[in-house]
Each structure stands twice: as C-alpha cells, then as structure tokens.
Design a protein that fits this description.
Elements lengths: L1 E2 L2 E7 L1 H18 L6 E6 L3 H9 L6 E6 L3 E2 L2 E2 L17 E9 L3 H11 L5 E10 L11 E6 L4 E2 L15 E4 L2
Parallel strand pairs: 3-4, 3-7, 7-8, 8-9
Antiparallel strand pairs: 1-2, 2-11, 5-6, 10-11
Bound molecules: guanosine-5'-monophosphate (5GP) and magnesium ion (2 copies).
One magnesium ion binds next to loops.
Length: 175
C-alpha cells in the first residue's frame, strides 16, 4: 500500500492486534484490581490502542490523554517535549502510561520523570509495540503487545507524516 511517497506492507493483522489487546486487558484488570488506576494515554499515536484496550478493562478505571511530540517523518528527532493537558490529580494514584510504540524509550522516560514529580503511588508502562533493539534507556516496560524489529511502522493510530492512522492493521515500510 502506498502512503505519500512510500510503499508499506502488512505487518500485524487486525485480528492479531485485537486478540493481544484482550490478553493485555485481562492481565491489567487482574494486576490493577482494587487500585483504581488512572490510564494516561499519549496522543496522538496511542488513541486507537487506548480506546480498544480501555473497552476491555473489567475493573473500575479512569482514562485521560496527554500530548508530547518527538518525532518528524521516519527518524526520531531526539527532542522530547513536556506533557500537555494533564488536569487530573496524580498524587497517590496508580498510573498506567499508554503509548503506541516504544522506540528509544526517551519519550516514555521523559513522561515518567514529569509524572513522578507529582507523587503518584505507582507508574506502570504499557506499550502496544516495542522496538527492542532501539532502546536508549533502561526504563522497564511493564506491559507490551508485540516486540518488533527496527522497522518504521504505521497504521492503527501510528502515522507517517500524519497519514495512515485510520488503518485497522499495522503496516511496515517495505524493504
Ligand atoms: P521514542 O521516544 O521511544 O524514541 O519514540 C516514541 C514515539 O515515536 C512513539 O510514541 C511514536 O509516536 C514515534 N515512533 C517511534 N517509532 C515509530 C514508528 O516506527 N512509526 C511511527 N509511526 N511512529 C514511531
Ligand atoms: Mg507516540
Ligand atoms: Mg508520529
């Protein structure tokens, strides 16, 4: 499939994504039972994952959305911005940070550091995709959907210069 100037091929089909989300939601609901968790999803990339996952959470829970920006085109720029839009009181709360993809991990690390300043009871890190070979931080991922190789992916919320977020499957840049 051609998106802008690049050719993409199917990488993770929608059925597999949805199946994995059910497993993750089951695991999260079990581990966070009684903790009244606050899910904090990172826009824009995580919106679709957060929405599908949250529907499968079977315990009382809240969700809110924040923004950061660190990516332009297919290469990370390395500059991570601060959190925008967090209105909830995080103090004493069990936080689940939700992102689409963990690449260098610098975005998630920056978000965690900002969050810790507000004295949450705990922070769990949840990502749909994990590019294991790209990590530049030792931040621990508590829950993940899929480990993937170092490929640029799009679809299911993830974009290439703004396009491709609407796709139900995840695609990778064709070699
Ligand atoms: P990190 O800070 O972990 O290097 O990058 C995290 C952010 O970069 C992700 O939340 C995502 O928005 C973006 N990103 C990293 N890898 C990819 C990729 O392969 N495809 C897309 N579309 N975005 C990516
Ligand atoms: Mg993102
Ligand atoms: Mg992006």
């Amino acid at each position: 499939m051609k998106i802008l100037d690049k050719e993409f091929e199917i990488f993770i089909p929608k059925e597999k994504i949805q199946q994995r989300i059910q497993e993750l939601a089951y695991d999260l609901s079990y581990k966070l039972d009684g903790k009244d968790p606050l899910f904090v999803a990172i826009l824009n990339g995580a919106f679709m994952f957060a929405s599908d996952l949250f529907k499968e959470i079977s315990i009382p829970a809240r969700i809110t959305f924040i923004k950061t920006a660190s990516y332009a085109g297919t290469e990370t720029t390395g500059s991570v911005q601060k959190l925008i839009g967090l209105k909830e009181n995080v103090n004493g709360q069990h936080i689940v940070l939700v992102d689409d993809i963990f690449d260098t991990g610098l975005t998630m690390k920056a978000v965690c550091e900002e969050m810790w300043k507000q004295n949450p009871a705990s922070i769990s890190v949840l990502t749909l995709l994990d590019k294991v070979s790209k990590h530049k931080t030792d931040l621990k991922i508590d829950f993940k959907g899929f480990e993937i190789p170092d490929k640029f992916v799009l679809g299911y919320g993830l974009d290439y210069n703004g396009y491709g977020r609407n796709l139900k499957d995840i695609y990778a840049l064709a070699d």
